[in-house]
Each structure stands twice: as C-alpha cells, then as structure tokens.
Records
---
Amino acid sequence: MDVLNLGKITGAVGLKGEVKIYPYTDRKEDFGVISYVLMNGKRVEVEGCRIQQPKGTIILKLAGINDRTAAENCRDAELTIRREDAPPLPEGVYYVKDLLGFALTDENGSVVGKLKNVLLNAAQDLYEVEPAEGGKTFLIPVVDRYVGDVDLAAKVIHVRNVEDLRSL
C-alpha cells in the first residue's frame, strides 16, 4: 500500500479529545478535506478539523478519541493516508517521495547530481543534491532562479545557475 506522510500528533487540545498536528506539508487546507487518517497504520475517521489563527495550528477531532487522556496517549503518532485518497495536488506541486532519486540536469543537459533529500524550510524548500562526480552534498533553493521543470516520466529535474551553489 502506497501511503503519504501527513504529519505527527504533538499533543492534546482541550478536554474533548482534539489533537494538535505538526504537518509535513505546507498545504494545511488538505487536512480539512480528508475523511480519515492512518494513525500508526490503523484507519481512524476524521470527525472535524480547524486551523487556529494566527499561527495556523491544525487541530483534528478523530473518531474514538473522546477525552484529553486519550488524546495525550496519541502523542507522537504518525499520520498517513493512502495515496489514492489524498487530495489532488495543483499543477507543479509534487510529493517529496516521488522526487527522491531524480537526476538533476543543467542548462546543457549535463547531470549535476541526484536528489538525495528535500529540506522543508520556512523561506523555501531546499534540494539536497549528491553531486554526479561524488563529494560533499550541496543545497539548491527551490525557487525559479535555480529550479525549472520537473519531468516525472524521465525522472529528471531541470536546474540552472547552480555552479555558484556548489561551494557554499
């Protein structure tokens, strides 16, 4: 079964069994449209979702968790969802797990390296790249200046202007 990581329960909220979520996505609104989560692999229905302002904290009410003690017992539980049940992504947005291992090619078509990891950062995400010629990994900010098109079929991410990033 192909699952996507949504986030982790970080604690209880209130007395009625609501839980606070640390999301692994910046698309917090997706939590409001899913009908269930897999909590440590077990299906649990989502009975309610709210996003508290100003910080955007995600609060979920999950079936069978009806008091603060039950909610506290869920702390550190990982939340996932089956890929086929996840909300659709907008064009140009990808799941991290789908991009790992992709080749990164420059403007000349030369392979710069392989995508090792994606670091989720407040300012912008960062691609951690294993250089094609070996050596120390380097980071590429995921912004238009450096990252172009993604070709899912060819498993290639087109990048540009990355030579100056290798030495940072």
---
Amino acid sequence: YPWPIVKKAHELGLMNSHIPVEYGGAGLGILDACVLIEEIAYGCTGIETAMEGNSLGMAPVILAGNDEQKKRFLGRMIKEPLMCGYCVTEPAAGSDVAGIKTRAVKKGDEYIVNGQKMWITNGGVANWFFLLARTHPDPKAPASKAFTAFAIEADNQGLIRGRKVNFILNRNYKKKLN
C-alpha cells in the first residue's frame, strides 16, 4: 500500500476533500473535487484510487449520518491519514444491492452482522467501513425497507479481512472482507 504517498497527500490537504467544513474538511463541491481527482489520476490512477476510495465510504455518512456519526467518522479523517472502505458488493450479488445476503439482526442495543463482502476498496487498510446489510426479516421486502446502513470500526470483534487480490491497475489494494 502506498502509505508514504497517502501520508504526504493527506498532509497537503489532497485527501477527503468532500468532508464538510463544519467537520474540519475543505467542503469542496463536486466540480472542484473532480478537478483535483482528475489531476492526481493523470499522474497515477492507482494512487488516486487509493486516496479517493475514502469518498465511497464517507459519502453515506456525509449524506445521511447524524451529527454524532459525522463527528466520529469524518472528523478524525482530517486529523490523520486514515482510510475507510465501502462494503456493499458480495460474492453472489455482485453490485446488485437488492441481492445482498449479508444480514444484521438486532440483539439488545447492538446488531449482529453475518455475511461476506468482496472487492472492498481500501479493505485491507481501512480504519472503518460503511456496510450495507439486510435487516428486514422478509426476504421479499422492497429494497427501500429491507436494508440498514452501518459504520463499523475495523477493529470490531468478528470482522475478518480476507485475502489480498491483485489487479493490473491497482496492485496496492486488499479487496476482500469476510
């Protein structure tokens, strides 16, 4: 993983440009962020993907997280070069969200999540993950009611990172999460 480059990019303010100003970020709009991303990708798409992969995991928190979640998961991304992952894709469902099999069952104040995700950008190095799981007990429930989004710490008990998968373009990733 290209840690020296990621750390320097973080130091220069080139990472996590989508984080709103109120949580310590630059609060860049889509056009500004796209120009920044395009310029970095011109030099190396692998490095850009490593850096910008964070935006996948952060986007749901930015768009739908409450204030406490935004402070907890976004604020620390500004303080140090941390990574997050986006856990939606599964072996049997691919990127078809409606086909997700990972289940989350509420037990008291917590959820127990069981399932397997794959092709997780930054999966091998993420400090936290956005994860989508089926919570409705009826497998035929409409997608709008079937799923719950979770932000999960990488050191959470029971979370197992899978094997590293090398790609031609992005050899600096570990992409599977069990």
